[in-house]
Amino acid sequence: MESKLMSKTFIWMFIGLLVTFVTGYGVASNETMIINIYKNSIYIVLCIVELILVIFLSAKVHSMSKNMARICFIIYSFVTGLSLSSIFVIYSLSSILYVFLIAAVVFLVFGLIGYFTKLDLTKIGTYLMMILLGVIICFLVNLFLNYEQFDFVLTLVSLVVFMGFTAYDVQKIKRLAENSDIPEDNLSIVGALNLYLDYINIFLDLLNLLGKSKD
Q: Which terminal residue of the chain has fewer beta carbons within 10 Å of its beta carbon, N or C?
């Protein structure tokens, strides 16, 4: 069951990423749509909907039918694509693809660490969440202070945190495959959502550090 679950998890993660990036690129290619999203309050609404969806999906996915879980995940990926469409306006496509590949390598390395390590990463997850909450608070404060060097440090810390979360989540999925009574299809969506979030955040942090803006 373990290998089958991992395969389904990564397939759905890839589908989610594909939906997100195709949506983001499509919206960025339509000047009217991108203006409407970012010049009105639609962007804020999208962020709120995105937050509600991820909380709802995380809390209820275990008890949903497999089709409903999949639909919710696709909707979440689509909404995330709408909110991330600005990266295709700010950064060059070649830079985005370059960073995407780097993020994929980083994600793969830490995913393999999580899969093969004999260390119990359970406690690490708690510490990572605490650090992440601290980073989020600091990011919000820095919106008012606008210190570029502080933002750089916070991005580095966030990157390290989500590298750790990648290893933690892969190991968690592996253990759920062995010790959970949740249907396999639902577990694959749970895992896909967690790994999707890890990858997206690694990608965005690297894009912030390495991405080249359009001329």
A: C
Which residues are within 8 A (CB) of 194 and not within 5 positions of it... i.e. 6 or more apart? 165, 169, 172, 173
Q: Whole-prediction pTM value?
A: 0.92
> Computed from CA positions of residues 43, 138, 136, 48, in that sequence, does the dihedral angle turn out positive or negative?
negative
Beta-bridge partner residues of 213: 91
Note the pLDDT tens digit of each residue in 159-207.
999 999 999 999 998 888 777 677 788 889 989 999 999 999 999 999 9
Residue partners of 40: CB distance under 8 A and separation at least 6: none
Rounded-to-integer distance, Cα 168 and Cα 206, Å: 20
Q: Phi/psi zone of residue 146: left (φ > 0), alpha (ψ -120 to 50 degrees), beta?
A: left
Phi-psi region for residue 192, left (φ > 0), alpha (ψ -120 to 50) or beta? alpha
Residue 163 and residue 12: Cα distance in Å, rounded?
20
> Torsions phi, psi of 84, nearest 5?
-95, 5
Question: How many residues can be counted in the chain?
Answer: 215
